[in-house]
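Thread: quick sanity check before group meeting

JM: Hey all, I'm pulling together slides for Thursday and realized we never actually wrote out the predicted structure for the chain we discussed last week. Dropping the sequence here so it's in one place. If anyone has concerns about the input, flag it before I start.
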Amino acid sequence: FDGRYANSVRYASPNLGPVKVVTHASILNEGNSGKQCSAWDTAIIGGFGPFQAALGFNHHNNFTAGAAGLAATALHDADNVIGVVKGSFGVIDANLGVEKGKYSSNHNSSSAKYTAFVFGVGANFGPTKVGVDFTKRDNGIAVGGTAFSPVISSNTLGGGNLTTLYVNHSLSKRTLGYF
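JM (edit): ok, ran it. Output follows.
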């Protein structure tokens, strides 16, 4: 739950066999140029033996973003599709995910796309999980231009490879420490 989603409605379906559908809609307090900013997310989540899979879509419209001077008036839309598969095999967990995203300007036809792939593996030792994630993203998103004519473009500066080593330790039922 993100504090930005404070004015929201969330629905989680009952389990439909091994599948569940969750959707979330929100009116956000980010747009200050006369257009209301909103977000919508939906996911289909399923569990099949030692495997879990999820497919999600989110749309965020009329949000402000950009370089200095653009935040007040430059409105953008973002669409993302995310797919994840996770397997649990005793103390070992493995996951594979892909995300495709697109940012579009509401002022002109400029837009940019990116694709990210994630592979991770972790080992569970009681309340502690140790793991590594590998991420590869093809492009970053750049916002430039002027406040009244922003330009969105892809660039390779935000792309590349990222390796994350982590230790998560459960301190209680509701508290998790990340190291």
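AS: nice. DSSP finds no helices and twelve strands in the chain. The CA atoms of residues 80 and 101 lie 4 Å apart.
JM: adding both to the slides.
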